[in-house]
Specification:
This protein is 29% helix and 20% strand. It is an alpha/beta fold. It has two domains: 31 residues, no CATH class; 328 residues, Rossmann fold, CATH 3.40.50. Strands 1-2-16-15-14-13-10-11-8-3 form a ten-stranded mixed sheet, sandwiched between helices. It has a two-stranded antiparallel sheet with strand order 4-7. A two-stranded antiparallel sheet has the order 5-6. The longest helix is centred in the N-terminal third of the chain and has 23 residues. The N and C termini lie far apart (79 Å).
């Protein structure tokens, strides 16, 4: 390198390095989807077009036997059942890992870091992703077995997304001990990594098909039963799904496409928006299709659904401007069409709450679990 007159070489190198770092940072910000994410506004649950809902006193929750729409206040104190209590039998949590190399259904994909996708110029509701490619993954699975489980007995169970869900296990310890929910197994399955279009998690959770439920049935449950000598019910009345965000849409997708497997669904901030990838012409708007076409235009399915959304939930968090990326509107629409079709459902609109808000879950999960398991015999098993 030649020295400029009057300027030391080390200073020129430092300036060049600084310029390079700044350029790289700017490029990363331009490519990263979070850089384009606006701050969600606070939505009013009484907005025209939203469902009519009962506003509860701050700190109160709807009865666990009540269908319909409810607004809970801004204070979200943890329910007593979300803490460990002396004298309450605690279940055992087992853990194992699964490799993509052993999966016939999900061999693995990933989207390159700091990339997202671009809207199709001919269709703003369709995202073009060119940076997704095959990639290996390892997922973790946690299995909660309550102290009251009798070996050899057939048990009901819940399948949860984005595991492990320690809060769920604590809640079940207390609710089972109080005979408010059945003695059940909980299977908390980690995702295959990433998020949204082009990722393994997005493929698993946002795809509108029975594929993920089939993955659980064929590849996860056999391992759970064999490893821990458990007997799991085949009766869909004794099977529930649960998740938040895309894990929430996944929970409903599992039951919708396989109602012979699952009848009970619990979701926080469900991603009932247009986030499916790859594109599917039969459901071109992804999970938005639930409230746009599938539920209102089809015969009711035997599902019981509990769902929540926060007043500061997500709104257009990416480059798509298709009017199908408002989580509050999506969940409001879900409540409307479920009511119109006569479903048993409970919809909770939470004030002072963000996306999959942890404090809201700490406050509401015990009541949500009680609601979802209404009608199932406590202390009994079904084959």
């Amino acid at each position: 390198m030649r020295q400029a007159k009057g300027v030391p070489i080390f200073r020129l190198e430092s300036i060049a390095l600084l310029i390079g770092l700044l350029a790289g940072a700017c490029l990363a910000m331009a490519q990263a989807p979070t850089a384009m994410r606006p701050t969600p506004p606070t939505r009013d649950p009484h907005t025209p077009g939203y469902v009519t809902a009962s506003e509860l006193p701050d700190g109160s929750l709807p009865p666990a036997v009540a269908d319909g729409n409810f607004i809970i206040g801004p204070t979200h104190s943890p329910a007593a059942e979300m803490s460990v209590h002396d004298g309450v039998p605690q279940g055992t949590v087992y853990e194992f890992t699964m490799s993509s190399a052993n999966s016939k259904i999900y061999p693995g994909i990933a989207r390159d870091a700091h990339t997202f996708g671009t809207p199709d110029p001919t269709d703003p509701a369709k995202l073009v992703v060119t940076t997704s490619h095959p990639a290996p993954y390892t997922r973790h699975v946690s299995v909660y077995v309550p102290k009251q489980y009798v070996p050899g007995k057939v048990a009901p169970f819940m399948v949860g997304a984005d595991g492990p869900d320690r809060a769920l296990f604590t809640a079940l310890d207390n609710l089972i001990a109080e005979h408010r929910v059945p003695v059940m197994i909980a299977i908390s399955i980690g995702n295959g990594s990433g998020d949204a279009q082009g990722s393994e998690r997005g493929l698993e959770y946002d795809t509108m098909s029975g594929r993920y439920a089939e993955f659980v049935e064929r590849e996860v449950l056999p391992l759970v039963k064999a490893k821990y000598h458990l007997k799991l019910t085949r009766n869909p009345e004794g099977r529930a799904t649960m998740g938040g965000s895309s894990g929430g849409s996944c929970a409903l997708i599992m039951a919708w496409f396989h109602p012979e497997l699952y009848h009970r669904v619990l979701t926080y901030s469900g991603t009932y928006v247009n986030q499916q990838w790859p594109y599917n012409a039969s459901t071109p708007h992804g999970a938005w299709e639930f409230h746009e076409h599938l539920i209102p235009n089809g015969p009711p399915k035997p599902l019981r659904i509990w769902m929540e959304v926060g007043d500061r939930d997500l709104l257009n968090p990416n480059v798509m401007r298709d009017d199908m990326h408002d989580w509050v509107v999506a969940n409001e629409n879900m409540a409307r069409v479920l009511a119109a079709q006569g479903y048993h459902y409970q919809f909770v609109f939470a004030r002072n709450a963000g996306h999959t808000d942890r404090t809201v879950k700490q406050q509401t999960l015990p009541e949500a679990l009680e609601y979802v398991w209404q009608g199932y015999p406590i202390g009994k098993v079904k084959k």
